Amino acid sequence: MSKLDIRTEGDTHVVVTRRFAAPPERVYRAHIEPELIKQWMLGPDGWTMPICINEARPGGQIRFEWSDGDGNGFFLTGEYVELNPYSRIVHVERMHLPDPTPDNHVETQFEADGAGTLMTMRMTLPDTETRTAMLATGMEQGMAVSYDRLDDLTMASA
After folding, report:
1. Dist CA 102 CA 128 (whole Å)
2. Phi/psi at 62 (5° precision)
3. What integer pLDDT is reported at residue 43 of this predicted model?
4. Sign of the torsion formed by the C-alpha atoms of 142, 56, 125 and 23
5. Mean of pLDDT values over 75-82
6. Would you state the torsion angle of the CA atoms of residues 79, 85, 87, 92, taken in this order, to the nearest 10 degrees?
7. Mean pLDDT, residues 56-73
8. 3-state class of 153 per DSSP?
9. pLDDT (0 to 100) of residue 158
10. How many CB atoms sit inside 10 A of residue 51's CB?
């Protein structure tokens, strides 16, 4: 059973929660350091992230490119709005599939939860149709696998 919970809120929001065994500092770092991101944010097995540009500062650029090794792939671009070390990240992102999706405004919070972390990610999309299309991509499975990898990665660095 997955530790991931995805729910909708109102007409335009998706809220994702996940508990991690590691403290907030490690989980936060894994979200902003390119070498760590490339190890866990891969989605289903077999995918890689050959390009990971992540300028973790307000106004900094984001570009993640994924490949399945068979010539298929997609990418995400965005920019950071706000970073509060170890507790909060706010950014805007758009997927390119190949055309860019509307902006997804994402706020991710990291809260101490015993010896671990409760991560809450709140995505704000422009309308219900965009949210429905995003959820229909199968993102839940990819997120669940990626966050399991993140949990293993942050505990291994203990």
Report:
1. 12
2. -125, 135
3. 81
4. positive
5. 97
6. 0
7. 95
8. helix
9. 54
10. 14
Q: In the numeric block, which tokens belong to residue 104?
A: 């997804």
pLDDT above 70: residue 2:
no
Residue type, 5: D
CA trace torsion 57, 93, 41, 157 (10° rounding): 20
Give CA–CA dist 53/11, Å, rounded: 31
Distances (CA, A) of 113 to 14, 21, 24: 22, 9, 9
Terminal-to-terminal C-alpha distance of the chain: 25
- pLDDT digit string, tens, across residues 132-158: 988 888 788 889 999 999 999 998 865
**Cis preceding-peptide flag for 98 (omega within 30 of 0):** yes
Contacts 24+ apart (CB under 8 A), 136-145: 139/6, 140/4, 140/6, 141/44, 142/43, 142/44, 143/4, 143/6, 143/16, 143/43, 144/2, 144/4, 145/42, 145/43, 145/44, 145/45
